[in-house]
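Hi Prof. W.,

I finally got the Gluconate 5-dehydrogenase prediction working! I wasn't sure whether to trim anything, so I left the full sequence exactly as given:
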Amino acid sequence: MLPFSLENQTAIVTGGGTGLGLGITRCLAQAGAKVVITGRREELLQQAAAAIGPQVIPMAVDVTDSAALPPFVDRVTREVGAPDILVNNAGIHVKKPALEMTDEDFNSVLHTHLTGAFALTRATAPGMLERGKGSIVFVSSMTAYMGMPLVAGYATAKSGVIGLVRTLSAEFAPKGVRINAVAPGWIDTPMLRRAVSADSERERKIRGRIQIEGFGAPEDVGWAVVYLCSEAAKYVTGVILPIDGGGHASF
Ligand code: NAD
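And this is what came out:
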């Protein structure tokens, strides 16, 4: 078996029914994992799972509903298997000038990306730590490294993810659970299309930074997640891996 194989592993991907999460799910499933995809829309999740195959199992849950998360992890364990992999991918985007961004806008973004991802990690990690084995991947973003206007809440959340990854890695890696993040640049998903729509100047600027022509595909991030979750990365933890066509290395 190749060290990149995820045979006999159970994964959870939040926001797995669309965009980047769906691409990550396709890659994890191709690598051999059973993948539970979550999100808030049951029907969309069912359609996404059916399009890939029986190794993808839809189970709706809202990551901002902390009380629902421990029972959700129990259900995954009972019906599919104890989770070996968690991908904290679910996210929302609020694009507004800083002075127009309300507390509600700001907090809703932090709640989904940070509090929700942390709460699900808290519900999932104990089983992994007990078994001394597991891999958790967060999704940060290039906005954690670059000053981009109009995304104060989002950039704060994605920067917070980096602190979370390093802290959790320091706590969990000595016990066999690796914590890493991917930092996607501009990946062609509905969220990206919404973020650049009607803002051709922003799109032009973004495209100008990328060294490899064009936006990335969800699978470009998905294969990096497969690597981070596999035996091939058994000595890799606390890492924030940019997947951005060279965007962060550009001027
Ligand atoms: P998307 O809108 O297609 O996906 C977001 C997913 O999260 C959706 O499936 C949505 O249903 C789910 N979600 C939102 N709130 C949720 C909640 N409370 N509970 C459960 N699920 C919830 O957008 P995407 O571009 O695929 O984004 C996926 C992740 O990648 C996000 O964390 C985003 O910030 C990050 N990201 C995207 C890009 C990009 O260029 N597309 C770049 C960097 C980072």
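The chain has one domain: 10-239. Does that look reasonable to you?

Thanks,
D.
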